[in-house]
Amino acid sequence: MKHYEELTGGEGKRVFYRAERFKASTLMQEISPVISLDDDNFEIFDMSMSGLSYFRPASDVVSVSPEKDIPLTLKLGPEEVFSGSGKVRRIEAHESVEKVAIELTKGYLDIQRLMEQHDDLAMRRQLREGMKDISPLVPSEYKTVISDAVYLLRSVRTTLEQVEHDMPAKAPRREERIQEIILECERDALKRWREISKKSMEIMTTIRNKPEVMKAAKQYTERTLTPELTPGASWKRSYEKPLGYPGDFEVMNYAYNLAMLGETPYEKFCHRLGTSTGEFITTRMTLVKQKIAELVNNAAHNGVEQFNIASLGCGPAQEVSNFLRGHAQPVNVNFTLIDQDDDALSYAYNNAYPQVVQLDGKATVNCLHATFLEFLAAGNLFKKLDNQDMIYAVGLVDYLTDKRAARLVKDLYKNLNPGGTLMIGSMYDSDSSLEWQVEMITDWQLEYRDEENMLNMANSLPEDAVRKTIVDKTGHCIILMVTKPS
Known about the structure:
The chain has helices at 24-27, 111-131, 140-166, 174-207, 211-224, 226-229, 233-240, 249-257, 265-277, 279-301, 318-324, 342-358, 372-376, 378-381, 402-414, 435-442, 451-456, and strands spanning 22-23, 33-37, 40-47, 51-57, 70-76, 79-94, 97-106, 306-312, 332-339, 363-369, 388-393, 416-428, 448-449, 466-471, 477-483. By secondary structure, it is an alpha/beta fold. It folds into three domains: 12-131, Thrombin, subunit H; 135-277, no CATH class; 280-483, Rossmann fold. Strands 8, 9, 10, 11, 12, 13, 14 and 15 form an eight-stranded mixed sheet that branches. It has a six-stranded antiparallel beta barrel with strand order 2-3-4-7-6-5. The chain is globular and about 85 Å long. Mean pLDDT is 90; it is low at 12-17.
């Protein structure tokens, strides 16, 4: 506790008390408060009990005299929440806009009450939006397919629950037998699931250019089908995105580890269905590992002593630990793993380092923690590193437009040594792509590309750069491979 003589008071201009100001976007995140002056409306920047400020275009011809009171009102959406008057006390220039500060001369802003009104209005708007029936926009054939999917999953659930109920608690090998039945259910259901996915993709293609219909179909899917799948850990994590971004390293680990997670047989079934859908993750990882092995062996054959490899957006980097495990390296291999997620880097390093130790100096693994924006400026990012003999980014351009992806390819190519290889992976655009499952069920938006789109990424590279594309065996992932001349 402080004594009175320790309370120092304000200094300089702070001697004059000023009501605490609050940034409007922090207080009222759902509905932006607006000030109305005559027929003009402006979003409020900040406010206090006795005043507020807003931005207006510097070219705005609104004439506000500092000598007279001006009537003003505050609105939250369509509702008026304050009426009074004020005087302009300050106008500050900010590039192409001006910040106008107003002192209230009639009335005051009850900040707490305004927040309560905001929360009440936001809740009511959420209820209206949530209860709004947009299902009539959903094509009837799409509803039929979703109904088939729900019927399939509920049939599996009922069957597995009955099996578990009928099998005595002390039956020999009970857990193993239930697990075998789950796998058998998955094999039978997977064929029907893929047919449903293909039909859904066909319908999705016909409504892709109708935003309102797509929105309605997506909402219909999330409210009808998604809850049937999220008992499975793989679907649940993909949909809820606990780390704040889709496709986190734990989602990838589900595909790698193939553990049968869940408390009930149906939870385990759903998880397995998700990891089977994500089979391309493992296949893609294996492709990268095999390419690393091929290039390292070629380097050794050519008398190279050191080989540098960088992975951009590395995730758990399972291919690195798999490559290093149990192999006597013919050359010194140096890996640089780059990711935006510190936890992913920690996992990747801890997974690979035991293999590094066993190789006794023939391999190194270093990690670089970078932001997603730094990924987009890869040219600057790679200035921190030596030139590389191989650079790969097999899950990054899924989140980039074609223009940004092409710029990334150009930047990465510049940082290859002569003879170096660049591998860029993307989701494959085809009539059997995973777009419906990923976007409509788990709200996970990606870019999908075919061979032409992938090759177009390399259009700005020198003519002598060797380009080719590879589609993985699942048909869900496509790789652009670029080799720099020696």
